[in-house]
Specification:
Helix content is 4%, strand content 53%. It has 186 residues and is mainly β.
Length: 186
Amino acid sequence: MNEQHVAWAPWSGPGHEHLVLREVSSALTAHSSVEGVTDEGRPFSLRYFLRTDSACRVREVELALLGSDARLALRSDGAGRWTDEKGRSLPELDGCIDVDISASPFTNTLPIRRLGLAPDSSDDIVVVYLAVPELSVRRCRQRYTCLGPERYLFESLESGFRAELPVDSQGLVLDYPGLFRRLPSR
């Protein structure tokens, strides 16, 4: 088992994420704590758990807000079919393999690793977008382009948002311009 501790901070304002990432036989489990402030200035504290299979397809994700009953749990068969915590089918998410947690740069690692793009190639994907602190769920179209070794262009195909992401050899974001920056590990 390989275990790594990773931390990010927002470029501006208070906040911090501490992620414990474990890899066993190429499957990932992530336990994370995120402290942040919304655009409206409201603080939040999020805990999340995420598990992938050996092909880096998300199989389950759970989010909970501290000091609230707000909780979200989703499961996937790895082929793009999702259910809620009670096992009810969520056909509006059909075809989504990855998740994007708005308060964390970690979820960019999942498609980067799963797609294994060669330099100058790209792929359009549909993800389960999890907005924090609302814990709302929706489909979102995105594109990842490999710009070269350890460098990717992320694009939201709906909003037009773009960011060039330098990553480490594990596909973990080092800098998410204007949003998150990786803190040095000790």
